[in-house]
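Exercise 7. Predict the joint structure of the components listed below.
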Amino acid sequence: MFRMKEKTSISKRRLTFLRGCAFVALAACAIAACSAPTGVQNDAARVATLQEPDTKGAPTSVRLVTGAQLLNTVAYLFGPDVKTITRFPPMERVEGLLQIGAGRAGINDNYLEIYRKASTDVAALVMDVRRRNFLIGCTPANPNAADNACATQFLSRVGRILFRQPLDKARTDEVVGIANTAADTLGDFYSGLGIALETLLVSPKTLFVVDRAEPDPARPGEQRLDAYSLASRLSFFLWNAAPDDTVLKAAESGEILTPKGRAKIVDMMLASPRLEKGVRAFFDDMLAFDDLEVLAKDPQIYPVFTGNAVGDAREQALRTITELLVTERSDYRDLFTTRKTFVSPALAAVYQMPTNSSWMAYEFPKDSPRIGILTQAAFLAGHSHPGRSSPTLRGKALRELLFCQKVPPPPPNVDFSAVENPDPNIKTARDRLDVHHKNPVCAGCHKITDPLGLALENFDGAGQYRENEKGAPIDATGALDGVPFNDPATLGKVLHDSPALTSCLTRRVLSYATSNANADAEVLKYFNAQFGMHGYRIPDLLRVIALSESFSRVRAPESTTKTADAGALTNAAAK
Amino acid sequence: MTHMNRRRVLRGILNGGAVTVGLPLLDCFLNTNGTAMADGKPLPIAFGTWHWGLGIARNVFEPKTTGLNYELTQQLLPLKDVKQHINVLTNFTAFRDSAPAICHHTGWVIARSGNAPRTNGDVVETIDVTTAARIGRTTRFKILAASAVNNVRETFSYDNPTTPNTAETSALGLYTRIFGPDFQDPNAPTFTPNPAVMVRKSALSGVMNDIKDVEKVVGAEDRARMDQYFTAVRQVERQFEQRLTKPEPIAACHSPKALGEDIKIGTEVELVSSRHKTMASLMAMAVACDQTRVFNLYYGGFDHTKLGYEKPHHACTHEEPIDEKLGYQINHAWFTMRSIQAWAEYVKVLADFKEGGGSLLDRVLVMGTTDVGEARIHSIDHLPILMAGRAGGKVKTGYHVDGGGTSIARIGYTAMRVMGLDIPNWGTNSNNTSKELGEILV
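Solution:
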C-alpha cells in the first residue's frame, strides 16, 4: 500500500480509492484496483464487474413519519405555504439515526394531540377562502351543504397521496361520508371537507409507513417489498416525502417492480429538484442537527451568537452540503476541505466579516482558517458548552457522527477530584485536558476524543476564530489515528483522506435507506467500493443503493430488543 | 323509558345546530364551601412529579437529624417558608444490580420506574403513567407535562422504552394548551356545545378502522404500537365527549390571564426560573380546574448557566475545585441552591392556592427527583427526593427521613399506594419493594 502511494502516475482519485479498499479489506475490490489499468473509463468497467453480495435484505418495519416528511408531503399536495408550526415529537436516535428510531416510535395520547393539532392547522389552511378554489379542484353545487361528487374527487386524490396507495371504495365512502355528515351538520361544505381531511392526516395509514412483503418471483423463497412499499421507501429515501403521482402510477402499473421501470423512476427522482430535500434530510439526521434546536449560548460570553445565528448555522451547513454534493455533484470528502459556503447576516457577525442583508454565496479566502464544514458554526457551536469550547464534545461528535464509532459516556460514581482544575494558571483547553489524560479512569475515552477536538480550538464555543485562550497561544496540532495535522486546514485534509469517513457515510446512507443498521459486512463493503468508484458522489451512491437488492429485498422482522447506542443519548446524558 | 341525561339532551339539541344552554349554578356539584364534591366525596387527589438535574452536595444538603424538627442545611435554606409542607428524603440508593451504570440516567429511571435501565432510553413505564392509568382517565389531560428547559427530548416520563412523553417547553404553549380555545370554563354561566367537536368525534371511527386494517398486516410488536395508538384515539374521543358535556362548576378554578407573549427561552438560570414560575402557576390552575390529575414539571439544572461564569452546571460539577475552606464546590452549590429555590417556589404556589378551606397542596402529592446523589462524583447512592403535599390527608409533612441506603423505589411505591394503586410490590431485582415509607404516612 505504501509503495502504491509513492507511484506518481496513479491519479488522486484512484489513490484514494485504493486507500478505501485497504481500509475495508475488500478482496474483490483490491484485486480489481491492483490489476486494472488506471483511468476513469476503466472505473466504469470495474463497477460493472462488482457484484452485490447475496443478501436477505432488511427486516420489514413500520416507521412513524417524521414531522418533516409529513410537511413535505403536505407541501407537494397543497404548496409550501400550507404548513404548521407544530413542534413534532422527537424520534429516538438509534444507531446514529432518527430514521431507525422511527421504526420503534409509537403514538400515545400525548403525541396524537400534537398530530391532531397539525392536522387541524393544515386543514384550516387548505379550506381557507383564499386557497380552497384552486387547492380543492372542484366547487360544490351548494357551499352550505354536502357535495358528494366534489368531496369524493378531493378526498380520493389527497387520500391516495397521504396513504401512499389508492383508497379502496369502502374507505373512500367512509371518509366522504364523514365530510358529508359534517357538512350537513355544520351547514358548510368546506368545514365538513376539512374535518374529513383532518382524519386522513391522523390516520395510521398516513402516519405509519408499513413495509409490505410479497414473494419475489425471481428468487423463490425470498421476499421483496410490494410495489407500493417500494414506492414509499424510494420516495422517503430520496425526497423525504411520500411518493408523488408519477411514482404511485409506476407502483399501480407494476412498472416499478421491473429493473428497467425502477431505474427509470429512480433516475427521475434523482433528477428532480426534490432530491435536495431528501439529501438535506439525510445529512440533518446523520449530523444530528436536531440538537441545534435546543442550543443556547451564554449571551454575556457570546453576545454575537443570537437565536438567529443558531438557526442560520444549521441552514448554512445544509446549504453548503446540498450545493456541493447535489448541485455541483462533488466528492463527498470535499465537504471537509471546501471553502465555499453561504453566509447570513447573523453568521457574518460570528465570522467577523461584512455581508449583505440576506444570505449570500461566499468563498472564504485561501488564507482563512475556515475550511470545510467542521469549521462552520453548526459543528463548532453545536458541540461546545454554552460558555466555552469543548474539544471533548467536538472530538466525540466527530468520532460518532462522521466515523460511526461509539464513545462511551463517562461512568457514574467516579471521583473527579483528581482531575478537578487545581491550578488557576492553566489557561488552555489542551492544558486542562492533559490532566484528564494522566488519569487512567478518564484517559481511555479522552485520548480518542480530545486530540481531534483540540485541532479546532482556534474556534471558541460560538465558532469565532481566536489565536489565544486567556492570553496563551493555542496549539492545534494533533493526529488522527497516527496521521498528523497542524491546524483545522490540515485536519480537514486528514479527514478527507480517511477511509473511515467514506465507509461511515456508506453505512449511514444504507441504514437510512432501509431503516436497518445491521447490514452484512460484505454488503457494506460492496456499497463502499461502489461509492469509491463513483468518485464519492452522493447522487451516485443513492442511485446504487436505490437500485440494489439490499434496498428492496426484505425479511420478517426479528423480535427487536433495544440496543445500547451512544447516539441515542439525551442531551443531558451525552455531555 | 329511555333515561334522559344532560348529554342526551345536548346531543338532541345539537342535531338542530349550535345552541347555548343556560345551566343554573344550582347544578353545582360541589358542597357549599367547595371542600368536597356535592355528593360528599372528597376533592380528587392528584399526583405530580418534579425534577431537577445534578443532585446535591451532600455535606451542605443532608440534614443532620431526622424527624420533624430537623434543622435546614445550607442548601435547604430556600425551603424555610415551605418546610411544613414538604418532606426531605435522603440517603436512598438506585440499585443497578447487573445493569450497566448509565450516567445521568440510572438514578432517575430507578426512582421513577423501579427498574434499572440496561441502555440509555431503556425506560419501562414510569410512575406518572402508572398513576395516570388509575386516577387520570377521566380528565381532559391524562398527564400534563411542562419543562422549563427548551429541550423536548429531556423527558422523565415514558409509556414504554419507545414512547417517551414529551413536555411542553413554551410557557405560552402551555397556557394555550390548557386555557386556549379548547378550554371549557366550568364556571361559565352558559354552555355552548360546539357542533364541530361532535362531528370530529364521530369522524374518529374512520381512524380506528384504519388502525384495525394496519394491525392485520404487521407483526406482534408493531401491533402493540397500533394498540397504543388505538388507546390514544380513545382518549381523544373521551376528550371530545367531555367538551360536549357541561363541566361541573369548580369554585377555585379561574382561567388565568392570557400570556401576551412567550417567556424568553434560554439556559441562563434567571430565564429558566422565570419560565418555571409561570409554568408552576399554570400547572396549579390546571389541577384546580381538574384539567388533569397527573402533572409533571421539569425545572432543569443540567445545562443551566450563570451569567458571566463560563461553565454550565454540569461541567462545573466535574471541573470546579472544592473550596478548601468551605469543603464544597461553590458554583455547583449555587446552581443547586437555585434548583432548591425553584422547588420552594413551586411548593409555595401550590400552598398559596386556596381551595375551599385549605390549599391545593392538601390534595396533591408531588415527588421531586434528581439524577444523581453527590453531584461531584455523579453517584447513584445517597440520592435525595423532595416531596410536597398531603395527598388528601394520607401523608404527613415536615419531616426529614434518612432512607438508610434502601432502594429509592420505596418512595415511588409509597406514592403510588397513597394514590390508591393496589399494588403489593413495585420494582425489579434489588429495587423490588413492598416497604412503604411509614415515616411520612398518616
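Discussion. Chain A has three domains: 2-49, 62-209, 283-496.
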